[in-house]
Amino acid sequence: MKLKLILKDGTEVIGESFGFLPNFAKASSGRSKGEVDGEVVFNTGMVGYPETFTDPSYRGQILVCTYPMIGNYGFPSERNLKLSSSLSLRAEGETLNSKVSELLESNKCHLRGIIVSEYCEEPSHWQAKKTLADFLKKHKIPAIQGVDTRALTQKLREHGVMLGKIVPETTKYSKQMIFSDPNLDNLVAEVSPKKEQVLLPKGRHKCTVALLDCGIKHNIIRHFLDRGCKVIRLPWNYDIAKLNGKYDGLFISNGPGDPKTVMKTTDSIKYVMKENKPIFGICLGCQLMALAVGGDTYKLKYGHRSANQPCIDEKTKRCYITSQNHGFAVNWKTMPKSWKVWFKNANDGTVEGIKHATKPWFAVQFHPEASPGPEDPAYLFDEFVNKLTN
Questions:
Q1: Of the candidates 317, 305, 367, 368, the residue with the CA atom closest to the CA atom of residue 343
Q2: Which of 160, 212, 280, 359 is the most buried (most CB within 10 A)?
Q3: CB burial of residue 308 (10 Å; 0-12, 13-18, 19+)
Q4: Which member of 218, 304, 356, 367 is catalytic?
């Protein structure tokens, strides 16, 4: 069956369905049931689509993949980390499944839809357990192939990200069409856990990290566990004062949407700052840290979504190639004088990292945990853990 992507400016793109097929029954309002609304963005990564498609930061978005073939190495197992001597999880006194994926970045696909140039129906990879189409059908994500994604990306680069919807081929654009904007919703509340959890590494832990989960990529958790950290995984709106200081530092995760929709999280950041404990943030966590100290954020024209974004350490002038997925950035002009720029994007000069001049508080916009992408900046986890143990 053919499906159509319609952008808010009237652009129409038609292709073949290869994922989940919604029920496009006509509603009494004249609007088809099953229409899939979202913010249309693009990702320039050449590999890593299983990790990208399971990243909670893509909540509410329709993703255009610029790489010409997607699905050629299938989809890996969706199993979670096993409960064994190396890992245990307790919540309210009970031993539970860890709910931390072994290979993916979450336990589901958070995208509203996927647009690709060509889908590979016969994948080949030693870790492949199913096709990408099988995964998308399981998680009810529509997908379209046979699209000129190069032309579509050029439009998004020129005009910026746009709202769009996936509809039946016969649907025609009209100026009366309603396009829902996911950024008006609290997307973080949709992807954050509802209860606190405790994750334990192999052997005795050497420090405790209070982790505010705003839609975390699971490889971040794996990095902390690999470094011997006990992780207290908390909902985005958790009152961190309830922990009574029984942690060594705070981590604020990545997540979807506008950071100003989750200001409740900044209350915990301010509290920990008063405690003078180390704080580390990634992506949305960087934006929330800026908001917590009185800074401001703004929406980028088309965001940074790729595994090849060059970022320069302003002190050493070393350039790191990084993995990124964010649509908002810190407005440096609004930051207090006690803060300094840590990293800058070599392409557009936007702020990619902030650090306090004297306090152990720092954050980056890029993803040092990679998955997918280069792992060069992973040393930042070591820097944070060293601050917790020294």
A1: 317
A2: 212
A3: middle
A4: 367
| Proportion of the chain in helix, strand, coil states, percent, rounded to 5 | 25, 35, 45
What type of residue is 60?
G
Known catalytic membership, residue 367: yes
180 CA to centre of own chain: 20
Q: Which domains does the chain have, with CATH numbers?
A: 2-71+78-184 (3.50.30.20), 187-389 (3.40.50.880)
The verdict on whether 283 is a catalytic residue reads yes
DSSP 143-197: EEES--HHHHHHHHHHH--EEEEEEETT----TT-----GGGS-HHHHHS-SS-E
**Which among 35, 39, 51, 369 is annotated as catalytic?**
369
- Catalytic residue, chosen from 283, 304, 326, 352, is 283
User: How do the pLDDT tens digits run along the chain, 390 residues long?
Assistant: 999 999 999 999 999 999 999 988 764 444 567 789 999 999 999 999 999 999 999 999 999 999 999 999 999 999 998 743 344 444 444 334 468 999 999 999 999 999 999 999 999 999 999 999 999 999 999 999 999 999 999 999 999 999 999 999 999 999 999 999 999 999 999 999 999 999 998 888 999 999 999 999 999 999 999 999 999 999 999 999 999 999 999 999 999 999 999 999 999 999 999 999 999 999 999 999 999 999 999 999 999 999 999 999 999 999 999 999 999 999 999 999 999 999 999 999 999 999 999 999 999 999 999 999 999 999 999 999 999 998
What is the strand order of the sheet 339-345 is part of?
94-95, 88-91, 197-200, 229-235, 207-213, 249-252, 279-282, 361-364, 351-356, 339-345, 296-313, 319-331
Buried b (16+ CB within 10 A) or exposed e, 31-68: ebeebbbbbbbbbebeebbbbbbbbbbbbbbbbbbbbe
